[in-house]
Amino acid sequence: MMAMASSSSSSSTWIFHSKPPKREISHFYLNESIRIKRRTQRLLIVKCSSSLHEEPPVVSKTKKEKVKIDEDLSLTVKSSTPLKGRRRRSPIDLWKRIFLASKKVRSIILLNVITVIYASDIPVLKEVEQIVDPAFFNVVRFTITAIPFVPFIVKAREDSQTRSAGIELGLWVSLGYLSQALGLLTSEAGQASFISAFTIIVVPLINGMFGATIPSLTWSGALLSLVGVGILEYGGSPPCVGDILNIMSAVFFGVHIFRTEQISRNTSKKKFLALLGYQVSVVALSSAFWFICRDIVSQLLQLDTGSGSGSGEWSSWWHWMVSFPWIPAIYTGIVSTALCLWAEMEAMRDVSATETAIIYGLEPVWGAAFAWFLLGERWGSTEWLGAALVLCGSLTIQLLGSTPEKSSNKKGDRSSNHRNSISSNDQKDFSLLTVVVKTKKNDDELFRKRDKL
Fold it and tell me: Which residues contact 32 (CB under 8 A, 6 or more apart)?
């Protein structure tokens, strides 16, 4: 009787004062949460066992909603349980994810490798020009480059867009290589390497002319590199015609970089080999045309002066075949031309033309290093100062960044886009913790829907 009186008094107190009994309510929620957790675990165990031992059944239209609720319940239990048995990531794994996950980082690394290979061209060409005529060497070099791409050209002969784009890129590369080869006749290899850094100014100027926004950091790094080139030119050997030709070569290569970015981003990867084949074929034909025209002019001059028999250099064709430097021709034709042009086109799908030109600004550093080790060329303090400025300008852009990465809708980015859409749609259900926080109301609704089905 006393207990009943106390319970009635407590209930009357709760009714009059509107204060719910804390102990009874907390006990009710505790039992309810335990019941929900056990029920979801039983459902998950049954679902996992059936999926392991049996094939997934064909889901009809009436059961789609039921299956979706089961998946939501399994996700809830899976996310609410603590992660066990997983290995903690080491700092090495973190750096691997940073440098290997981003396509742009891989492209930047690839462009730096291309820069080293391009820089090795200059001392090789400098030595070859003392053995054989540079015009004839370019004919053999680019013919070797074009031979492997003949099947791809034949396969894409009806694609007018690829053909016109490849011919255009080939013309710009031809002018650049021809100017570089003629400029090295009178200028030093190390100095020619640093003059080629003028490309880092040409590309931002062209981008600005076509309406692109160039960040101030990019202009500061480019101007710093240009000042370094000016100091190097002032402190080196006296200016000559070769320096002007090297500057023209930098301009032509800058236009080629700009157009390569535009064409590579509007061309499928399947057409890259055909595009590259047209490009190197145009370079080979232009080199052969230049060599034939120059030889004809020299023979006409010999006939006018009466100092030759008219046979000219054609009589020594066999001697050229025997004494020709085939190893440098194969290296410059296959490695530093075909392979580098293909890698450049692949990398510039993710890196802008301005960034590519500034990365190529490191070519003088590597070219001077090759000239120092292979040719024995030495510098003074002024030349080292100019080299340091060029290096600082290029590294400033690479380390601090110049332009943001452009958005792409490629097939390879579907997974990342899917993850982004999930995170934006389910943002209310996610937190910074590893456990997904869901309210009791959501779980009760799922169970009610399942019971109705």
Answer: 440
What does the pLDDT read at residue 7? 47
Q: What is the pLDDT of residue 451?
A: 58
At 81, list the tokens. Answer: 């349980």
Q: Are 199 and 241 in contact (CB under 8 A)?
A: no
Q: Are 177 and 288 in contact, with CB atoms under 8 Å apart?
A: no
Residue pointed to by tokens 């999926």:
51
Single out the residue of 129, 218, 184 nearest to residue 397, CA to CA.
218
Q: What is the Cα–Cα distance from 165 to 381, expressed in whole angstroms?
A: 45
Start-end of H helices in 266-308:
272-305
The b-or-e profile of 192-210 (16+ CB within 10 A means b, else e) is bbbbbbbbbbbbbebbeee
Cα dihedral sign, 270-149-255-108: positive
On whether the CB atoms of residues 382 and 130 are closer than 8 A, the answer is no
Quote the CA–CA distance of 105 and 108 in Å, as a whole number.
5
CA distances from 208 to 199, 202, 213, 344 (A): 14, 10, 6, 22
Q: Tokens 């003059």 appear where?
A: 195
Round to whole Å and give the CA distance between 360 and 354.
10
Contact between residue 173 and residue 279 where contact means Cβ atoms under 8 Å apart: yes
For the chain, residues with pLDDT lower than 50 are 1-16, 22-26, 52, 58-61, 73, 75-86, 305-312, 402-441
Q: How far apart are CA 243 and CA 239, in angstroms?
A: 6
Tokens 């570089």, residue located: 180
**Looking at residue 258, what is its pLDDT?**
87
